[in-house]
């Protein structure tokens, strides 16, 4: 439970938020019995920015649904929308996107199986969206239900089930924290859906209150909460049985040792490299746009700097969408996310030599080798003009946006390319980008204080 004493003194009805007690990293009870997780932080931010007390009731997943069926001044902290749930819930605003994935036991060298084929057993949490998804799309699969995620993943790691369907972030969290990131691998992403806040059916006043209250949470706070819980670190892991297996094989005979050791080491090395590649990609990639995140950009910078040829410099373009909060406020965060994804796709197409990253929120970055500032100006102004001329059409809404850009090359910062670091280069471009915003937006600002606002045809 949680509630702010200052709010309680106002004698308001306390809003109760319910969710799972073992849905890490979204919601769970700590060892001391305190609610923790991404959704807990989200609803605490809701309480802070709306001056409204909140209590948490964390239960097993089926019990959270039963609790909502009872009605009252309560909200489900976040769940996927489905026709079954719409019978007793009204859904408010989307909160965060999640992926539902099929995980299978990692058994290198075993014969291929089809885990979603008829008669195969797949583990799910009882009354979960995953369960209804399988029933609808893969009715031939035999489901084995568990009361919560903790029981589901415990059964998987103990070998009771060889396949399961779960939220990707939840599965990654459990496998990593149990020290067995290679025990199961993501075989297939089944869906990507937003999770919604929901209230008991027919409580329109509470529904409206929740929608308005969520809109009061600043986008920077939402981003901070996501980055706190979703980012993961790379984990190196090796099979526990590798050394004992080697000892047994040596004991059997020298010939058998050489033959089997080489065979097993090769297969396990391949599996480990593949798993580490997936973990590196996950840690270095922005989950919404699939661009590099800040960590991934730093890695690209480190690889690019020693490869720069004579007469080449490091060029950086910092791009920020103008008045993007107004897009989210007017069309909703789902539409806003679509604009970000569309812009990311465009940047990947237009940047042929270099890397594109999303640094957070509506801020993007292009890092590439350049022979002159003029080359960077051409790229930056093409981006600016193309975005300004584009109309984003989503679900009948026509959305227009512009961008403010700061463009810089390494010689604007230092004459010694060997001493150049990414933070210095990014900070300089960031200052130029904000100068472009101060001068009216929809323009490219250079280190010379020159502003570029002309269309491509006139440049």
UniProtKB/TrEMBL annotation:
<keyword id="KW-0472">Membrane</keyword>
<keyword id="KW-1133">Transmembrane helix</keyword>
<dbReference type="InterPro" id="IPR000160">
    <property type="entry name" value="GGDEF_dom"/>
</dbReference>
<dbReference type="InterPro" id="IPR043128">
    <property type="entry name" value="Rev_trsase/Diguanyl_cyclase"/>
</dbReference>
<dbReference type="Pfam" id="PF00990">
    <property type="entry name" value="GGDEF"/>
</dbReference>
<dbReference type="InterPro" id="IPR050469">
    <property type="entry name" value="Diguanylate_Cyclase"/>
</dbReference>
<feature type="domain" description="GGDEF">
    <location>
        <begin position="312"/>
        <end position="449"/>
    </location>
</feature>
<dbReference type="Pfam" id="PF00497">
    <property type="entry name" value="SBP_bac_3"/>
</dbReference>
<protein>
    <recommendedName>
        <fullName>diguanylate cyclase</fullName>
        <ecNumber>2.7.7.65</ecNumber>
    </recommendedName>
</protein>
<dbReference type="InterPro" id="IPR029787">
    <property type="entry name" value="Nucleotide_cyclase"/>
</dbReference>
<feature type="transmembrane region" description="Helical">
    <location>
        <begin position="241"/>
        <end position="260"/>
    </location>
</feature>
<dbReference type="InterPro" id="IPR001638">
    <property type="entry name" value="Solute-binding_3/MltF_N"/>
</dbReference>
<keyword id="KW-0812">Transmembrane</keyword>
């Amino acid at each position: 439970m949680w509630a702010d004493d200052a709010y309680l003194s106002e004698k308001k009805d306390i809003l109760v938020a319910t969710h799972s007690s073992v849905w890490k990293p979204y919601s769970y009870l700590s060892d001391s019995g305190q609610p923790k997780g991404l959704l807990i932080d989200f609803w605490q931010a809701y309480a802070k920015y709306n001056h409204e007390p909140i209590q948490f009731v964390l239960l097993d997943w089926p019990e959270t649904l039963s609790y909502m069926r009872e009605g009252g001044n309560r909200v489900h902290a976040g769940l996927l929308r489905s026709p079954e749930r719409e019978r007793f819930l009204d859904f408010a605003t989307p909160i965060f996107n999640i992926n539902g994935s099929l995980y299978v036991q990692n058994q290198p060298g075993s014969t291929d199986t089809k885990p979603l084929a008829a008669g195969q057993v797949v583990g799910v949490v009882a009354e979960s969206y995953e369960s209804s998804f399988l029933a609808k799309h893969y009715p031939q699969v035999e489901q084995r239900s568990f009361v919560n995620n903790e029981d589901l993943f415990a059964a998987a790691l103990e070998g009771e089930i060889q396949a399961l369907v779960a939220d990707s972030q939840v599965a990654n969290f459990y496998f990593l924290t149990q020290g067995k990131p290679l025990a199961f691998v993501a075989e297939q992403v089944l869906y990507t859906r937003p999770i919604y806040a929901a209230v008991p059916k027919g409580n329109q006043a509470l529904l409206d209150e929740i929608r308005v209250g969520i809109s009061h949470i600043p986008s920077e706070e939402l981003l901070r909460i996501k980055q706190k819980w979703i980012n993961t670190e790379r984990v190196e892991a090796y099979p526990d049985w590798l050394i004992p297996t080697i000892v047994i094989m040596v004991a059997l005979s020298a010939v058998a040792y050489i033959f089997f050791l080489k065979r097993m080491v090769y297969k396990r090395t391949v599996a480990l490299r593949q798993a580490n590649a997936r973990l590196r990609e996950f840690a270095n990639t922005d989950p919404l746009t699939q661009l590099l995140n800040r960590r991934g950009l730093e890695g690209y910078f480190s690889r690019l700097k020693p490869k720069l040829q004579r007469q080449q410099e490091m060029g950086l373009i910092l791009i920020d969408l103008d008045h993007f909060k107004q897009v989210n406020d007017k069309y909703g965060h789902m539409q806003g996310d679509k604009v970000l994804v569309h812009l990311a796709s465009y940047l990947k197409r237009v940047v042929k030599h270099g890397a594109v990253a999303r640094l957070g929120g509506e801020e993007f970055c292009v890092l590439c080798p350049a022979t002159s500032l003029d080359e960077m100006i051409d790229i930056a102004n093409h981006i600016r003009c193309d975005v300004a001329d584009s109309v984003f059409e989503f679900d009948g809404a026509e959305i227009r946006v512009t961008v403010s850009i700061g463009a810089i090359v390494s010689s604007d910062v230092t004459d010694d390319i060997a001493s150049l670091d990414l933070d210095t280069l990014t900070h300089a471009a960031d200052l130029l980008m904000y100068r472009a915003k101060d001068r009216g937006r929809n323009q490219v600002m250079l280190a010379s204080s020159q502003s570029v606002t002309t269309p491509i045809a006139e440049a």
